[in-house]
Predict the structure.
Amino acid sequence: MLATDLPLESRQLNRVARRCGAGLARLGAFWGHGSGDIAVAFSTAGRIAHHEAADILPMTMLNESRIDLPFRAAAEATQEAVLNAMLAAPAITGRDGHRRPSLADALV
């Protein structure tokens, strides 16, 4: 899940969401057909009143020539989120007593 307050329209959001795969790739993951990894992006920039009366609403969107920074931010945010989740995961004991330490324990 990737959220932004940038004024991005749907096509731009799709393009930015695809860059989440670069964040996974930086960690050695493969993001391919059947991997189960998905990225959903949304923007909070275009607020519309609940009971909007106007038939046509103005829309603002980021200039295409400025989209490289959001691409990089999507990859970096994804990478950081995965690393944070891995460090926060506790050690576990599974079936037949198989124990796996947490990454945080392994780094100490």
